[in-house]
Amino acid sequence: MVPMVDFALVVAGSEASGGAGIQADLKTFQQLGVHGSGALTCIVSFDPKNDWGHRFVPVDAPVIADQIEAATAVHDIDVVKIGMLGTPVTIETVAREVSARSFKHVVLDPVLICKGQEPGAALDTDTALREKVLPLATVVTPNLFETKTLAGVDDITTVDELVAAAKRIHELGVPFVVAKGGVELPGPDAVDVLVSDDGVEVFSRPKIGEERVSGAGCTFAAAITAELAKGASVRDAVAVAKDFVTAAVEARLPSNAPFTSAWQGAYAG
Ligand code: PXL
Hints:
Strand content: 15-25%
Distance between the termini: 24 Å
Largest sheet: 9 strands, mixed
Protein name: pyridoxal kinase
EC number: 2.7.1.35
Order of helices and strands: EHEEHEHEHEHHEEEEHHE
GO biological process, one term: thiamine biosynthetic process
Structural class: alpha/beta
GO cellular component, one term: cytosol
Function: Catalyzes the phosphorylation of hydroxymethylpyrimidine phosphate (HMP-P) to HMP-PP, and of HMP to HMP-P.
Bound molecules: 3-hydroxy-5-(hydroxymethyl)-2-methylisonicotinaldehyde
CATH architecture: 3-Layer(aba) Sandwich
């Protein structure tokens, strides 16, 4: 018997420690029973000699295009997650390659800044992401900072303000906006809001500690992607992803760096 397995593609960067990036995405797919294909956009190596800053190397644009071609030629894949892109050239390439194919869902985790980048370059990257990739997204999963940036609001301190900002991003044309309050949104709970034409839904769990956990955002968006690949509605995919990331954060792994890492193996389903 050939097992019935669903397929998903991730286009993202490598984060060598395995907490975040494509490593987190592929582990999440696997844990949810989805076959993961992956196209690498860049390589991030934290620098233990320099306050764990991000060393960043982009993959050449034609090589990114080749990987997307290879993955989508080998398998019929109709759901893609886009993670860290990193440069305007990468963004243009990924936008072109993704729009040349008819994906049913494009889940965009809009990773806006990487610590290692120059502010000028980061601004170019933000603009390119907003102009070229955001219009392709069916689902976008901004954290609090990214929500403020994409919505063009100065501050978000309440769930109502988070919903209002998510509505602004929805009005930019993204069908499903999942804005994440995370540990930075004041209050006892980790709150995510889903805004779509169907209305607003709030997903809330008690905060687990007050520190950010490396890879939590990647894991959350990857879990949404995997569930969509299995045929779930966006609403149900977000509900499973919230459970998945809560389990991964509860079981977070200590490290020698000043941060913990999400553990995708914790989710039992
Ligand atoms: O968590 C955001 C993120 C995504 N992708 C890569 C990263 C990071 C953060 O370090 O390195 C490759």
